[in-house]
Amino acid sequence: MCSELPPSPTAPVTKVEEHSDPTRVFNSDGVENSKLELSIVSKSEQIIGLEDVGVVSQEELRKIHRKIDKRILPWLCITYLVMRIDLNNITNAAIIDEERGDDIKTQLQLAAQDWAWAIACFYYPYGFLEPFSTLFIKSTTPSFWIGRIMVTWGIIVCCIATVQNYAGLISTRVLLGAAEAGYYPGVIYYLAFWFKPEELALRVAVFYSFGQVSGFVGGFLAFAVSFASGVLPGWRWLFLIEGIPAILMGLATFFILPDFPQTAKFLHDKEREVVIQRLSKNAPSKMAKTWDRRQVVKLFRDPTFWTFSATWFCHAIGGFGLSYVLPTVIYDLGFTTTALSNVLSMPPSLATFVLLNLLGWLVQMRKWNPYWVAIGLEIVNIICYVLLLTVNDVTIRYLALLVSTATAGSVYPILWPNRVKAAHGTTAAGIAIGITNALAQFSGILGPQVFLSVYGPTYKFSFLVCVGLLAGAVIFIAMSGALLAELGFQKTREINKQRGRG
Q1: pLDDT in tens, 190-224
Q2: Do 213 and 353 contact (CB within 8 A), yes or no?
Q3: CB–CB of 12/57 below 8 Å?
């Protein structure tokens, strides 16, 4: 998951000295440490002198974080992969066995607008309930709430395989949205109880990238079940096969996932204290009260709340809207069969996985500015859409779809640590994360409307709308970074001043 340095028997011990600049770190001899090469540990982890637990070496801190990562991240990644498969299977089901007339649209007699609503209705309860469901992570326990979410969504996905008409499909999709609400923002919120925001970039990237692999796995499953039609049509098999693992893994989550650092039995007493005391006073904490009205009022008065929200909204439709109809768009580009179209929806997901992990590593380990990285991703996405608007060659159009899907899938996780950092307090963090992620659900509410099949096969209107929204996302990303003084201009000016004095 991440590179590691060989252990050093003489690893320097880090402590905090009383200097005016809290970001400067000094070793045991009083010499300033300018660069520390750690694995997944960021620069902020160098300040680890703690009053109650004594001085902790860099190597000890690395071991603690490695232990937490191994205990938490693999299970979260696997469960998120299953969650995204269940979320996206509706797009793969859209074209299974279409040539034979056994597809879901034909069997349930769905018009183009009916299908758009079948996709979109999921996101209304999902988005509305996200802030409340996210706070339930704190008011209950993460293992219970995340496990509960998985069990209920797995049961409902299996129920979708039994629907007989449009009303049944809408009902089950609405229930599925309510059941799944809070999973993804809940995980982001959960990680904030364990790590500083500066330490989340690579972790969120790894976690999120497994969700992108769902397109690869889902496309493969859709391709496989397209040959399984018999007693049941392929789309019904798809929902059954993908719902059962969620139920089983949800039950296992009750016992596997640790809750909070304060109750983590896999950590020793000293390790627990190190994790807890390293977090800032504004970080979410098990000991804080779940609801603090003053924090909520302060959150809504913060201009960054609105700029981050606008970023998530614009990118949701402009960047992510395409993903909900990707197999259909690929099919409309002229590829021969629906089975092949589901297969061709797999490489974009794999490309997202690779790009996202690379960028997460560069942001956290090489200190690339996440705001500039996100702006660059949006610009590349805009270029791809311009190609889709102007080029008719099918191969070039498919490659543009591949690149745009990869870049669009990388923007949110690159910005999430900064979104978390901008919220202060346990309640504020939960509400901010929940509302922000709720706005991302407009990708499913409006995305299918923007990419209605009536705009195919060229989808020129659709791509023009996306270009405009992505341009707006670039502006709001820059505004968020400027409001938090994190675009890097101030740091550059200080470096130039120091060089001038030299």
Answers
A1: 999 999 888 898 899 999 888 877 767 777 777 77
A2: yes
A3: yes
Which amino acid is located at 228 in the chain? A
pLDDT tens digits, 412-423: 999 999 999 999
Radius of gyration for the chain, computed over Cα atoms and rounded to the nearest angstrom: 23
Give the residue among 337, 304, 310, 289 at the shortest CA–CA distance from 421: 304
Q: What distance in Å separates the CA atoms of residue 193 and residue 190, rounded to the nearest whole number?
A: 6
71 three-class SS: helix
Q: Spell out the SS3 assignment of 125-170.
A: HHHHHHHHHHHHHHHCCHHHHHHHHHHHHHHHHHHHCCCCCHHHHH
C-beta separation of 185 from 437 below 8 A: yes
Domains with residue ranges and CATH for the chain: 14-52 (no CATH), 58-496 (1.20.1250.20)
Reported as a pLDDT band with limits 50, 70 and 90, residue 21 is very low
Query: Where do runs of H (alpha helix) occur along 181-233?
Result: 183-191, 201-225
**Residue given tokens 């191969």 in the structure block:** 395
Query: Where is 433: in which H helix or E strand?
Result: helix 426-440
**Average per-residue pLDDT in the chain?**
80
Q: Which amino acid is at 181?
A: A
37 Cβ contact list (under 8 Å, min separation 6): 5
Residues facing residue 49 across a β-bridge = 55
SS3 string, 399-421, reads HHHHHHHHHHHHHHHHHHHHHHH
Q: Nearest-5° angle of CA 360, CA 365, CA 366?
A: 100
